[in-house]
């Protein structure tokens, strides 16, 4: 799993490899010197803040590291914490939640007008009660490689419809024409929504609000 801690630890590791502090790395990358400070990794309300794809791209350019280098560090950091994470989840009560493939999600009959699971044809997957004790939480199975490198074919995304979404959140969006996509929320206004692609090979997207059927926040991913 590409966890919040693992991503930030990878940035810290790149700074150390280049004999820099996180602030020094931010400067070299042409960013605000405070961009990677510990205090910037959580919002005032305690919610996790993730580095943007643009910031990561600038860090790679500034250090000469490749995308494979970066995610190799991330995976190593994730593996280091895996035993603790697995123990925590194994002690939680499991709950069955609806599961659907991305390809199916674009067709009609699986969601109500608010983006909550509805109708027939859903499979079932078990997930720890917390945070999945919220009403309407469901799972989507990634199909294909369009969400690489963050999400791979077969990964399971846990989605919370109805949750407040904010800039920087990973979200699932369904357009009025039936397209379902996982993106990063860049900006949302009363008139439009801007989405950043998880895969640099795919374009960013902008929609009029009238073109969006629903948007839901990704709260967890099993990888």
Q: If you had to describe this structure to a student in words, what would you say it looks like?
A:
The chain is of the alpha+beta class and 223 residues long. The protein is 29% helix and 26% strand. Strands 2-1-3-4-9-5-6-7-8 form a nine-stranded mixed β-sheet. The longest helix has 24 residues, at 67-90. It is globular and about 55 Å long. The N and C termini lie close together (5 Å). Mean pLDDT is 81; it is low at 79-92.
Name the overall outline.
globular
Specify the CATH class of the largest domain. Answer: Mainly Beta
In the predicted model, the low-confidence regions spanning at least 5 consecutive residues are: 79-92
Number of strands: 9
Taken together, the total number of domains comes to: 2
Strand order of the largest sheet: 2-1-3-4-9-5-6-7-8
Intertermini distance: 5 Å
Mean pLDDT: 81
CATH topology-level fold name of the largest domain:
Umud Fragment, subunit A
Q: Helix content range of the residues, please? A: 25-40%
**Continuous helix count:** 6
Helix/strand-derived category reads alpha+beta
Q: What fraction of residues sit in β-strands?
A: 25-35%
Major sheet = 9 strands, mixed
CATH architecture of the largest domain: Ribbon
The run of helices and strands is HHHHEHEHEEEEEEE
Mind sketching the topology for me?
Elements lengths: L3 H14 L4 H7 L24 H11 L3 H24 L3 E8 H4 L17 E6 H4 L5 E4 L14 E5 L9 E6 L4 E9 L3 E6 L7 E4 L3 E11 L1
Parallel strand pairs: 1-3
Antiparallel strand pairs: 1-2, 3-4, 4-9, 5-6, 5-9, 6-7, 7-8
Helix pairs in contact: 1-4
């Amino acid at each position: 799993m590409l966890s919040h801690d693992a991503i930030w630890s990878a940035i810290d590791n790149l700074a150390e490899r280049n004999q820099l502090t996180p602030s020094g790395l931010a400067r070299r990358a042409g960013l605000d010197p405070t961009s990677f400070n510990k205090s910037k990794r959580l919002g005032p309300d305690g919610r996790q803040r993730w580095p943007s794809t643009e910031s990561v791209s600038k860090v790679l350019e500034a250090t000469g590291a490749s995308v494979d280098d970066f995610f190799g560090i991330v995976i190593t950091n994730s593996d280091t914490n895996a035993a603790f994470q697995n123990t925590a989840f194994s002690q939680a009560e499991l709950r069955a939640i609806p599961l659907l493939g991305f390809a199916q999600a674009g067709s009609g009959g699986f969601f109500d007008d608010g983006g909550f699971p509805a109708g027939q044809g859903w499979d079932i997957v078990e997930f720890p009660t917390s945070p999945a004790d919220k009403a309407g939480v469901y799972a989507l199975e990634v199909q294909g490689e369009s969400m690489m490198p963050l999400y791979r074919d077969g990964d399971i995304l846990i989605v919370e419809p109805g949750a407040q979404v904010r800039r920087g959140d990973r979200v699932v969006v369904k357009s009025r024409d039936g397209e379902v996509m996982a993106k990063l929320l860049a900006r949302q206004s009363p008139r439009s929504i801007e989405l950043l692609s998880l895969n640099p090979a795919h374009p960013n997207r902008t929609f009029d609000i009238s073109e969006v059927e629903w948007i839901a926040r990704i709260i967890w991913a099993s990888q």
